[in-house]
Amino acid sequence: MERNLKNVLVISFGFLLLFTAYGGLQSLQSSLHSEEGLGVASLSVLYAVLILSSMFLPPVLIKKLGCKWTIAGSMCCYVAFSLGNFYASWYTLIPTSVILGLGGAPLWSAKCTYLTIAGNSYTEKAGKNGKDIINQYFGVFFLIFQSSGIWGNLISSLIFSQASTKVEISEENLACCGAYDCLTDTTNTTGSAEPPNSLIYTLLGIYTASGVLAVLLIVVFLDEIKSDQAETEKEILETPSFWSTFLATFQHLKDKRQCLLIPLTMYSGFEQGFLSGDYTKTYVTCALGIHYVGYVMICFSAVNSLCSLLFGKMSQFTGRKLLFVLATVTNIACIIALLLWKPHPKQLAVFFVFPALWGLSDAIWQTQTNGLYGILFEKHKEAAFANYRLWESFGFVIAFGYSTKLQVYIKLYILLSVLVLSMVTYGAVEYLEAKSSPGTPTATKKENVGPLTQETHL
C-alpha cells in the first residue's frame, strides 16, 4: 500500500503544481490578451485541438511510451503554453495553444490508466473490493488536485492587487447584472486597470516555474507501471496503427452505454464553463468588480476539493445513485435561484454561496461520473476515456461558443435541459446494467475496475 500511495501522491502533487499555473492562466486569458480577442481565440483553438487529440493520441502514446512518460511529456506541453504567454501574439499564443491541446487528452488518460492499474494491483494483493480502493485513490487525487484552483487564483489576486484601482458600481450598471444581463462588456465599467508588465512577467515566471517543478516531480519520483492486466504479451508487443487507434475511439460508440453517457459527459463541460465564464462575469465582476473573481473561485475550489475526498469515501456506503441525485437537486436549485436573483453588492455572502454549492455538485460529477466510466469499460479503458475527453471538450466548446451570443437566462435554461437529459440517459445506463446482471448489484459486479478522470480544466 505504501508504494502505491506514494505514486498516487506524486501524481496528485504533480497535477497540483501544473494546474496551479494553467488554471490561473486560463482564467486570465480574456483579461490579459483582450486585443482582437486573442485570449478567447487561444482557448477556442486549445479545446478544438483537444477534441482531435482525444480521438487518437491517448492510446498510441500510452502504449508506446507508457503512463509515466506520457504524463511527463504531456506536462511539457502545458509549460510551453506558459512560455507563450510571455510575448503573447497570434504567432506565439495560438501555436502553444495547439501544443497544449495535443497534450491535454494523453495527460488525463495516462493518469486515469496509471491510478486504476495501481488500485487494481493493490486489490489483487490485499483481496479488497477494487471499486472501493479506486474511489479512495481518486478521492485523494481530487482533494489535492482541486486545491490548485485555490493557489492559482490566490497567486494572481495577490500579485495583481498591488496595482488594481477599484471603481464604484452604479445602480444603472447593477441593473444589467444577473440572468437578464444587457450583453455588454461589464469589465469596462467595473474592472480594474491593466496591470503593469512587470507584474505580468512576475506572475508568468511563477506559473512557468510551477509547471517545470511538476515535470521534474513526475520524472524523478513516479514509478513506471505496466498495463498488462487485460492484455497478453502478444498484445503488449503489438503497436496499434494510427488509423486503428483513431477508429477505436469511434468504435467504442457501438456500446449503447457509451452513447447514453454522452449527455452526462458533455454536461460536465457545460457546468464548468458556465461557472468560470458566465457566473464570474455577469454576477461577480458586474456587481462586485473583477478583484472579487479570484476569491469567489477560491471558495468553489476549496469546497470542491474537500467534497471530492468526502464523496470518494462515501460512495462505498451510499452508492453512486444517491450521490447523483444529490448533485442533480443541488444544481437544479442553484439554476432556479440564479434565474430569480438580482445580484447586489450588499448581498456579499450570497456571491459565495453559489460557488460553494456548485463545488459540492461538481465534486460528485467528477468523482462519480468518471468512476462510472472506469467500472463500465474496464477492458477498453483507453478508448473509453478518450471518449470522455472528447465529449467533455465538446461541452466546453459549445459553452464557450455561445458565451458572448446569448443572455445568461437562456444559458441557464440550456444548462437545466442538458442536466435533465443527462439524468434520463444515466438512468437508462443503470437500468441496462441491472438488467445484464440480475440479482447482482452493479457496484460490486467486478472486482477490478477501470480508470477515472477529471474533468475540468483540461
Provide a descriptive summary of the structure in words:
The chain has 458 residues and is an all-alpha fold. It is 76% helix and 0% strand. It has helices spanning 2-32, 38-84, 93-126, 130-146, 148-160, 171-174, 187-190, 197-221, 233-237, 242-251, 256-260, 262-287, 293-318, 320-340, 348-376, 381-401, 408-436. Helix 1 (2-32) runs antiparallel to helix 3, helix 2 (38-84) crosses helix 3 (93-126) and helix 2 (38-84) crosses helix 16 (381-401). The radius of gyration is 21 Å and the shape is globular.
Which key terms come to mind for this protein?
single chain; about 450 residues; mainly alpha; about 0% strand; globular; disordered C terminus
Topology, number of strands: 0
C-alpha geometry: globular
Q: Report the radius of gyration as a whole number of Å.
A: 21 Å
Distance between the termini: 29 Å
What is the residue-mean pLDDT, rounded to a whole number? 80
Question: How much β-strand is present in the residues?
Answer: under 5%
State the share of residues found in helices, binned by percent. Answer: over 70%
Low-confidence stretches: 186-193, 229-239, 440-457
The largest sheet, given as strand count, sense and whether it forms a barrel, is:
none
In short:
This protein has 458 residues and is mostly helical. Helices cover 76% and strands 0% of the residues.
Secondary-structure blueprint:
Layout lengths: L1 H31 L5 H47 L8 H34 L3 H17 L1 H13 L10 H4 L12 H4 L6 H25 L11 H5 L4 H10 L4 H5 L1 H26 L5 H26 L1 H21 L7 H29 L4 H21 L6 H29 L22
